[in-house]
Structure formats: C-alpha cells, structure tokens
Sequence to fold (499 residues):
Amino acid sequence: MVAKKPDEARIVITGVGLTAPNGNNLAEFRKSLLAGKSGIQKLNVRYMGEVLAGICHFDPLKYQKKKELRRGTRAGSTAIYCAQEAIADAKLDLACLDKSKIGVYLGITEHGTVETENEIYEIKQFDYDVKYWSHHHNPRVVANNPAGEVTLNLGITGPHYTLGAACAGGNIGLIQGLQMLLLNEVDLALGGGVSECTGSFGIFAGFKSEGALASHPDPEKACRPFDKDRNGVIVSEGGCIFVLERLSDALKRGAKIYGEIVGYATNSDATDFIFPSAERQVECMKLALDKAGISPEDIDIINTHGTGTIEGDPVECQAIREAFGEHPHAYINNTKSFIGHAMGAAGALELAGNLPSFEDYIVHPTINLDHLDPECHLNNLVINEPKKIDKVDYILNNSFGMLGINSVVIAKRFEE
Amino acid sequence: MTKKQIKDTILEIIAQIIPDEDLSNLKGDIPLREQVELDSMDFLDIIMELRKRYGIEVPEDDYVQLATLDGSIAYLEPRMKEL
Fold:
C-alpha cells in the first residue's frame, strides 16, 4: 500500500477535447464506441489512388479564421480545436488565468511530412525551381508547430513543445504535462497528441511497402486487431488534448474530475526499428503498475495498442498474458478497430474513449473480431459488443511505437 | 491587361490571402496594411502569386511601390499590359 499523496502531488484530468474519425467530442466519440460505429472511409491520396483512412470532420472555423487555416497546418488546426474544446469542457475562463503558467505538450508521431510533400508537389509544376518554394514552409514544419499554433490561437505564453514519440505520442504528451505540473513548472497543462498523417502519401506508401497497410472491401471492417484475417494498419488523423491540473487546484475551483493519473511509464525495446518486444512491453506495464502502487489484479480495463498488423498484435497479447497472468481479471478492448491508427493522437484518444467507463461501468468492445487468432487469445477480451461490468476503478492504456518506444498510462477513478 | 483588370487581379489575390477581410471599401491611395490585416508574410504571398501566375519578379527594393493599391497598379501596369 502506497502512502496517500498530498493533493498538490496528484494530477487529475478536468477537461477533454478531441476529434476522432467517429466523433468530435467525448460524448459523440463514446456513443460511437458503444454503438460499434466505425469512422473508416475511402480516401483518394496523391500517387496512391484510393486507400482506406480515418478522417476527422470537425469544423476548423469554429476557433480559427480562414487566414489562420491557410497559413497553418492541419495538425495545428486539429490541436487548436482540441485545446479549445478541452478548455471549454473544463469550464475554464482563460481570461482569469495566468497564461504564463499554462503549458502545451503534444505528442506527435510525425510532423512536416505533409507540408514538405505539398511543397515538392507545388514546385514540380515549376520544374523544381526553388524560388517557388513557400516562405511558410519553415514555420509549418518546425516540430513544435502544432503546440505553437495552440499558443498563438489562445495567447498562452507558458512553455509549448511537441514530443516526437511515434505512436506512443498521445500517452507521452499526457505524461509530460503531468510531470511539468508535478515539477511546478506550470499550473495548468494541455497534454495529449495530434496527427495529420492522412495528408501524407508517404505514410500510406511506407506502410504499403512494409506489407502492413490494411485493405478490405468494406472500409469499416478493415481494421481488425486480433482477428485471423487482419492485414495491417489503417492510417488515421485525429487529436485529443486533456486539461490536467493538480488535484488541489481542481478541488478549489470545483472542477469535474474525469479521473486521476496514478501510474505511467515509458521505456525502449532497443531491439528493432519496427518489430516490438514483448519483454519490454511487460516491463513497461509493470513499471506503470509499480508507480501506481497497485497489482495487476487491480486493473479493470486494458486498452490495447493493437494496430491490426500480423506481426505486432500477438506480441502485445503475449506481453499482456505475461504481465497479467493467463487469466487476468481485467477486461480488454481496442479502439483502433473503430478509428484506425491515429498515430500521435492514438494514445490520448484511446484513453479518453475509456474514461466514461468510470461512470457508466461499460467497457467498449474491440470490433471486427470475427475469427480470433489463437496467438491473440486474451481472457476477458470484449468482442464486438460492449460489456457491462461491476467495478471500474483502474484503466490501463498501452501505446507503443516504432524504434521500440513503449508507454503505459494508468487512470484511476477519482476518490478524495 | 487593362488597369481595371490589373486592379481586379490584385484584389482577387489579396482576397485569397486574407479571406476574412472585407476589401470592398479599400482606398487606393492609403497603404494596404493600414486598412486591412496584412502582415509581411501575407505580402510575400502576393509577391509569390505574381511570380507563379504571371512570371513577374518584384525585386525586394521595389516592395515599397506595392504598399498601396494605386501604387501596385502603377507598378504592375507596364509588366502586365501584354498579358
């Protein structure tokens, strides 16, 4: 049993802003996850032709002028939408806050590929004469762009940066925000992740060249984690930003608390550029459990990273079996089966989609699981239909990425 | 292009660059930047559009001549009249 921490050292989520291929706020997103509603569609991509992808349908003009949209990036616009929605959800009035004590920390898988591809396409019309290369290129492709656009839009003068963490980015952005609050560097953190990757043919082409780009006659059935017939990743865009506060501040202003982040961990496989390591994933989950001061039996829901690749899914399942024993108590689900792989946003979106379970005691399923791959066997895998359960005190969220980056976040039902 | 066509072209380019602004009452003899939100990056967008669309190069020393709508028309007229 870990000694109870003072409220100043406990970090809680008090606002959620998101856009996913099947919802533009948490209520819509959750509704889709419980209704089995996918967000995958056909998309025409330069040089690739028709592919399957997850596209978000939020209104960027809700918080930006047309000129800002023209000048900025899709990732910046996505981040602005999510940040504004999160602040509104947290019922915060920015005018009353010290904006120098707000930090913006966003995980990204990639940034700049979309803008670079667009510029090269543009100057191709001019026989690659670089005098036609846009003066907007550098501010668009600097790695801090999505977080920086948030500060420009909201007038936030505290720190902002992105964290390049491949597909673990969403969790890492959240963890960074938490750490900065614990260090008293900021009083409010906007942490999460974004991705604009569907604008880049290179991302699709890269997965295709790896033999890991999913295809299916029905777009909504294409992302099939743990299914025998899975054939790869669905590339998606998205964003999710949490308002994070120290519990003491959240209580003082009577904020709604979605949950407390009690455990987190990140580590590295140090084995391969692409293929994951079950051994290190187990270590990462155990590190997060240790940090939370709890045992595997305490976890009620595990949101898997599973992307639907032939090679990756069984590795994570093996890791979960090892970390939790052959018969874990926890119910296990997967969000990518609905929305595809939202890359830098994935970890944050997937945690967000599960947070309402603290209130409704329902575990959203993993969909498109018709023929379970025996290598992906997990006890209590919630398949195709939501499951009502008796207790939801802890949710564990896995997010792993290329170059062997692993991240785990554990959220706890809030109790004073 | 006639003077009227040049003016319409410049206004169309500016409208594309600052789509939120109302350009209907722009005064020709007052600097554009005093009338609408047009910063240095936007101004470079105008220069780039002229280059891309019409192959017109505006040297940096001449930028000042494009400060107003009237100045822009006068500067561009000899360069666009054959278009």
Q: What stands out?
A: Helices of chain B lie at 3-17, 32-35, 40-54, 69-80. Chain B touches chain A through twelve residues (CB under 8 Å). The mean pLDDT of chain B is 96.
